[in-house]
Write the structure tokens for this entry.
Amino acid sequence: MERTAGGASAPPSRTPGRPPGRAVAGTRPGGRRDRRGPGRSTPSGPARPQRQDKPHYWFAERLLAVLSGQRPVHWMLGHTMGVAYEQLVRLAPGAPLRPGERVMPVVRHCGEFRPGPGVIEAFARINAGERVHAMAFRLEQGPDDRRWRCSAVELGDDRAAAP
């Protein structure tokens, strides 16, 4: 240890195991030439909001999981209102969006229309291999807790609309 003017110990001027004259380069791995540090990346395109931040995408993914048989209906219990939950109970046993042979259904696109404050009417395009399915649902925001809940679900083949 080197001594400073006040008599306190200071770290050695070079790191043990490194050749003299070579500075410690922070967190950059050896051989790395770019100046970016951890957590800093170059933007790869226009900034787009993440799907998870949009309630209609979040609900589309959850409804797909239930209607494809990947999750049980009660998984949506706290996220649906009475009529929508009953629609899911009727639909889920048939798993209308069940995965085909080695092809899992995925939400390809989800759009929204806001007819008023606290209401979203959404649609989702579901791809399962060569097949494309349509799903529509309505979300309503609770006045007290401001949480979104699904209040209606319909599939393109009208199986959800039957009472």
Q: What stands out?
A: Residues 55-67 form the longest helix (13 residues).
